[in-house]
């Protein structure tokens, strides 16, 4: 499986070519809403999981196969926490040297307390991070970080990164019903946002299969409350329509698995995404996927999602 996938439609980044620098699932958080399931075990060491040059070669190949305008952003995102790749700085700089397409990094922000990580992301055009909780207790309940990653260190890391970082810093709040949508929880988050001073605040709703079955998106009332309290400019992200490109891999099944591993899809999305191929290819691909042992179907609130087989989703 390659580390480069897509482009896929992104809610914030248009048609986004994904670079997934870590193996499934490499994370030091275990967020209750994680779309690629529970983290087991936690990974905390930064490693060169894949060779920097190999990843850059893959990016070069995909760029040469696409026309100008087909890719809006190149985004580090994927099967876990991107900054756990010890070469993330080289990767960001390597892609920047290769193309004028803007580069984004999606990170949980847990390693911003390390000066070298802050420096490594400095060259990215946008850094998208998260703040789901404004108190240590809620942070532990939602993000369930590795034990040594305490809240004060997490928050001061974000503030330190903002001081250094000159480009677009976007902070995402995943809004969940009866978890962080109360007035008190939102006021706590707002107080921290005013210290971080991000360029944009985004409100997301869990729309992919959450690791925990009890996670629900905030309702209309909760969303309105969040918009009012978090920031005058907070925007609510809605799912984006767009084209999934399965062409990064040698064949269609690998291409679909490459995307599902990083971006679980509803059955309808999958069928629509395959619509451009001839009917026989679609049927045989769906059949091959079912028999491959590489995907699993997870149902959340009546919706069937095609998810990576290796991911572990809670059932109760
Ligand atoms: S949502 Fe992101 S930070 Fe949270 S567990 Fe999943 S990969 Fe890790």
Report on the architecture of this protein.
- This protein has 316 residues and is of the alpha/beta class.
- It has a single domain (4-263), classed as Aldolase class I (TIM Barrel).
- It is built from ten helices and eleven strands.
- The chain has an eight-stranded mixed beta sheet. A three-stranded antiparallel beta sheet has the order 9-11-10.
- Strand 6 (168-174), helix 6 (183-196) and strand 7 form a beta-alpha-beta unit.
- Helix 1 packs parallel to helix 2 (88-98), helix 6 runs parallel beside helix 7 (220-230) and helix 8 (252-260) packs across helix 10.
- The protein is globular, with a radius of gyration of 19 Å.
- The model has no long low-confidence stretch (mean pLDDT 93).
- Iron/sulfur cluster binds at residues 27, 29-31, 34, 39, 80-81, 108.
| Oligomeric state of this protein | single chain
Order of helices and strands: EEHEHEHEHHEHEHEHEHHEE
Q: What Rg, in angstroms, do the CA atoms define?
A: 19 Å
Number of helices: 10
Question: Which structural class do you get from the secondary structure elements?
Answer: alpha/beta
Ligands: iron/sulfur cluster
Strand tally: 11
Name the overall outline.
globular
CATH topology: TIM Barrel
Strand content: 15-25%
Bin the helical content. Answer: 25-40%
Chain-averaged pLDDT: 93
Count of structural domains: 1
For the termini, the CA-CA separation is 31 Å
Query: How would you name the CATH homologous superfamily?
Result: Aldolase class I
Please report the first level of CATH classification, the CATH class.
Alpha Beta
């Amino acid at each position: 499986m390659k580390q480069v996938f897509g482009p896929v439609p992104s809610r914030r980044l248009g048609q986004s070519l994904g670079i997934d620098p870590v193996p499934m699932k490499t994370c030091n958080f275990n967020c209750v809403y994680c779309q690629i399931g529970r983290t087991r075990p936690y990974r905390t060491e930064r490693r060169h999981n894949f060779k920097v040059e190999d990843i850059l070669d893959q990016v070069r190949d995909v760029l040469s196969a696409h026309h100008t305008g087909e890719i809006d952003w190149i985004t580090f995102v994927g099967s876990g926490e991107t900054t756990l790749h010890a070469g993330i700085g080289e990767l960001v700089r390597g892609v920047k040297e290769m193309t004028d397409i803007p580069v984004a990094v999606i990170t949980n922000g847990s390693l911003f307390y390390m000066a070298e990580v802050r420096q490594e992301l400095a060259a990215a055009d946008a850094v998208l991070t998260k703040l789901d909780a404004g108190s240590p207790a809620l942070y532990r309940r939602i993000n369930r970080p590795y034990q040594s990653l305490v809240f004060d260190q997490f928050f001061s890391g974000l503030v330190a990164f903002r001081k250094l970082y000159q480009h677009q810093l976007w902070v995402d709040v995943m809004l969940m019903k009866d978890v962080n949508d109360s007035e008190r929880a939102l006021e706590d988050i707002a107080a921290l946002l005013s210290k971080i001073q991000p360029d944009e605040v985004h409100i997301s709703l869990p729309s992919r299969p959450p690791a925990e079955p009890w996670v629900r998106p905030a309702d209309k009332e909760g969303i309105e409350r969040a918009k009012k309290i978090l920031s005058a400019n907070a925007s609510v992200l809605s799912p984006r329509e767009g084209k999934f490109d399965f062409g990064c891999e040698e064949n269609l099944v690998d291409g679909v698995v490459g995307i599902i591993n990083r971006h679980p899809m509803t059955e309808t999305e999958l069928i629509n995404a395959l619509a451009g191929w001839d009917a026989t290819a679609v049927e045989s691909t769906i059949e091959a996927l079912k028999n491959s042992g590489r995907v699993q179907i997870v149902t959340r609130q009546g919706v069937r999602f095609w998810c990576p087989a290796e991911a572990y989703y809670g059932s109760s």
